[in-house]
Structure formats: structure tokens, C-alpha cells
Amino acid sequence: KTLKEIFVAVCYCPFSSHLVFFGSDNSLNWLLLTAPFDHSHNFIAHCSKLIIKPNNAEKVENDTQTPIAAPCTAGDLYELDATRIAFGEKVFSSCCKLSVFLGESNSHLTIEYNTLDSASGTPATKNNSLSDRRPLKSRHTVYINDSITHMVYYSVKDDESDSESETIPLMRMDKPEETSNRSSDGIRESTTKAKKSEYPIQNDQMSFLAMRVTPNDENKLVMFSDTYDHSVVEGDDANKYIVIEVRSNEEFQDVLDKMRSNASIVKYLHKSLEYSETYEYLKALKKDTLKEEQKRLSSLDSSQRKTRSSTRKKSVDASQNRVLLVYPFTSDMNSLEDAALGLMEASGAHPHSHIEVDDQQSVSDSIKKTGSNELAASTVDISKKIRGRNHYLTIRKEDLDRLEPEEFLNDTIIDFWMRWIWRKEIHDSESVVHFFISHFFTALREDGPKAVSSWTAKKNINVFKKRLVFLPINESLHWSLCVIVNPGSINCNGNDLSCILFLDSLKAHRKGRISKYVRDWLNYEWKRLVKCDPLEAPFNNCTMPVYDPKIPYQDNSWDCGVFVCRYAYGLYLRRHRHFTRDDLDDKFIRAISQSPEFQFDMHDIERLRIEIKTLLEKLSANYEVMKKKEKQERKLRGTKETKACKRI
Questions:
Q1: Are 115 and 46 part of one and the same domain?
Q2: pTM score
Q3: Same domain (yes/no): 613, 582
Q4: Residue 542: what are its φ and ψ, rounded to 5°?
Q5: So what family is this one in (predicted)?
Q6: For residue 409, which of 576, 605, 273 has the smallest C-alpha distance?
Q7: Does 90 lie in the same domain as 236?
Q8: Residue 605's domain spans which residues?
Q9: What is the pLDDT of residues 462-486, one digit of tens each?
Q10: β-bridge pairing 546-547 and 499-503
């Protein structure tokens, strides 16, 4: 009644954290009103209003009797996924995002992240499943003209992120020797020297935006007063900056170009940093990286901790070393498939009810070709069927414990999962995919292409006849997945795309260095198998580029192995789809990013962890039945032989 307006719609915009009202006034003017929403009811005093006349769509400012601020201005909103956000020394890594709104006068940044608490409000623990925890979304809106005093950035160029040369390992460097220059605003510009990394494929370069912001009631940064102090200039503390580490270098560079062309923000965007200057801004992230590495080491060593009682230690070791199964093993095929009943990924189910039309016929043909004969046999000795090409996995109790919440998966679990989802094609020489065990890349990196090529030659594996070749990678206490696409189409003029897909849930490995190892091996294999080809090294950056499509990412520090399992499953389901140059033009959005096989979240990851554990427990029961049956058969044979000897 006071404003004499009728609002016909009210909605909340999560991208800009604003309430939006749409309606009309008593003069039949269309009206749009927006206000920042901060979970309080006092938003009228901060809202902006736009009135559009029905005749000529002229924008006019509202009358002065209403408590409305200046009219809102048009602008563009850009969003960036962030890996981590540091408020001084406080680091967040769950569902991080940076939104940049560029307008004529009200340009602002919105920083978002999640914290996980249980529904009761108590801190999240290993005893609480993800479904019992409530993600708490936090947002901080920072207006450019009001609170930002300094802003710098570092953007990794494509040629740097894919570089095959050694670089200074930023995240593992010791405290550098510095030569300091004091800028006019008190920010120290430093050059650094650092030691060479012991992990050459760790991703030691990252794109980030760093700024100093004056805390106020509107941006709510006063809550970080214990970890972030914008007034600090002197000293070597890590609490002087707010740092947003972004995931995509390409998207970040696009947004930076927009920011540099905006008059209201360009004056605060001071400079682009050189790589040697980034150390000072990333101290908090470095500490967080080292803390997470220590956490992983502690978790991996937990099963080997010493106890005070030697007797108890022996019993614990015996329990942990108990063999649950050796996979693959002789079993009734139906029993093996029954172990996956009620499970999704373990049973090979498609994550969505529909499959793309172009995939349906290929899948149907594959089932007709390989499925019927397999399931017809009542008892199948899988180990004999794939002898000479198989890698036997001994799975113990300590391996199963890796599937407990907040534990890190080891190579045994990863290798088992790859073998399991491939189980119906592993013996088929015409299968369009091949899975290497996790030790393959380790041997390639440490011993060179010759060592692993002797392996493929002995097992008679021709990777150039495969559409997808999977290489799980475990380096620096982190898992990622490298997938070689159409390596045999390297010199073809068709539309098939030859490339390397690199899937990393934390962006912790250097795709450029990993792809170099892979290309060196492919060139060695090419010389061995395609001896008549005049090209000695056809695989290079141009003919076999590496891409990292946008995929779901983890929001914790321990689920990287489960993500690799899920990535592999998603691509395996798409093994009958041809990857073409059109996918490259589309940035793999349709082929991967928006495909049904890659629509999953952290709840699916938690479920998959439980699924793999359930599957192993069921297979272990089948394995025990098989071992008892073998024992009885041996005993029966021994009895018959004894009786025969007595008769003789």
C-alpha cells in the first residue's frame, strides 16, 4: 500500500545473491526491483529499482517518496569454478565458485563455498555419511568501489600449463630468497628462488586472483578476523590476501579480458604477476597442500601403526593381511553377476534411463556379438580364459578398509574396478578399449618406454586398434585418469579425433608432462608395430593434443580415487561412440561434460564407494565357496588315489 505497487512474481537469483521482484504499479508501468539478499529482512533500503513505461519502454527513476536507491544498471555475469579459496590462512575447497558481475557502476565479485556440518549442527566426522550432513552455502559479495584496495592475478598460459620443460614447483618450494621492492600501496613485489620438485608431474602452476578487501558488514569478511588481516603490510604472514584458485585457465583468461575492458574495475586490477612473484600470494594454499599431503600419508600408514602389545600387533597384522579373494577366479558366471545385483555401476547399468540414439545400435551389436556365448556357460574359468593377458589381484582386508569413508583408495582397488567393469570384454581381442593397471604409468615414468613396450609385446597388445586406452595415474598421493583416444587414427584424414583426455578431480597433476610420457611411449610402440611407416615420431603436441574437459570435481581431499573409478566407468559406457573433430569444436560439452554418463555428484561418489565395497564382500563370499569346493575335490581325489594304491 505504501509503494502502491503490485508484485506478481518474486524469485531468488543464486548467481548474484539477489531477490528479484517483478510486477507493475498503479500507472501500469512494468517494474523490476532487485535487492541483495543476506538472510535478513532489511533489504528495502539496499534495493535498486527500474521502471519501464509501457509506451516507449523509457527507463525512469522512481519517485523520491519510496526508500529506493539508485536505479539498477545493466551488466554481464561471469562464473568461474574455483578449486580453493583462501581468506588469509583459512582455506575452503568445497563447491567453490567466483562470480564476476560487470556493470556500469555496481560491479562486484561474489565468492561462494560450502562447509559441511551434520544436520544436528555438530562437526562432520567419519561416522556421519554425506547424506547426514547439511551443506552450508556461504557467500561474500564484494563491491569494487567500496572495499577492494588491491587486486593482482596470475594466469597460466596454455603453453605453460602444457610445457614439457621443468618449472619451479611452486606448491613444494621451500621458503625462497627474496629481493623486495615496495610498491606505492605497500604490496611487496618479490622474486623467488626455489628447489626443484621431487614430483615432476605435480601441477605446480595455477591460475588465481588475489586481492585485499576491507571487511565490512556487507561483505561479511569480519568473520575471518582471526585468519585474515587486510591491514598487514610488513612481515611474512600468509594472512594478507584473499586468493581464489580457479580451475579453468581458458575461462579465467576470458573473464580477465572482460574485467580489463570494464572502466569500474580496471583501475583496481593492478597487474599480471610473473611466475616468480606468485609465492607470496600462495602461502596459505601451499600450507593447505602440505597439510592435505600429510593427512593422506597418515591415512595410508594407519594400518601399519605400531601398538604397545606385540601380541596384539601380530593379531592385527594377521587380520589385515587376510586374503579376501584373488581376482579373477573360477566361478559360476551367474554367481559373479549376482554379486552385482542391486548395484548401479557395478552391474553395468546406465546412470540414466535413456541412451543416445547413436549409441544404442552399437551397444546392441556388442551384446549380440559377445554376450550370449558368455552367459550360456554354467561354469567359466575366467583365469584360464584370459591367461597370458591377465593381471591377478590379491585383495586383502586392508585393501577393503580403503573403502571406508574418508579413506584413500589404493592401487589394488583401482585396478580391480577397472578389471571388473571390463570383465565381459577383457578376453575379446576385438574389444575397442584397453585398461592398463596403475603400475603401467609408474613404470613408464621411471623406466622409460622400452620397459612398458616389452610388456605390451609379451601380452600381444596393439593399442593402435583400440578406440580408448585407459591409464590410471597415481602420483604425489593423488589419482587422475589419462585416456588415449583413437591412437590408430593419427595419420588418417577422416573425422576421427586422435587426442589425450585428462581427467583430474583436483587439477593436481600436470597434464602437459603426463602427456609427454604418453606420447613418447606411443612413438616407441609405433616404431615397433608400424615398421613400414616413414614417420619416426608421429605423436606430438599437434597430432596428439591433450584436453581436460569440464567434469564433476571433488570437494574434499580423499575421494580422488573414487572419482577416477567413476570417470573410467563413464567413458567406458561411451566406448562405442566415435570421438570426432566436432567434439573438439564443442569443447567436449556434448561428448562428455553434458553427457548422461557424467551427470553425477558427491552423493553418487559416496554411493559408488559403498558399491565397490559391497561388491568385493559378495565376491569374497563366492571365492570362499570356490576354495572350499576345491579343497573338497582335492580331498576326494586324494581318497580315491589312496584306495587305488591299497588295491594295487
A1: no
A2: 0.74
A3: yes
A4: -85, -45
A5: Belongs to the peptidase C48 family.
A6: 605
A7: yes
A8: 303-627
A9: 999 999 999 999 988 899 999 999 9
A10: parallel
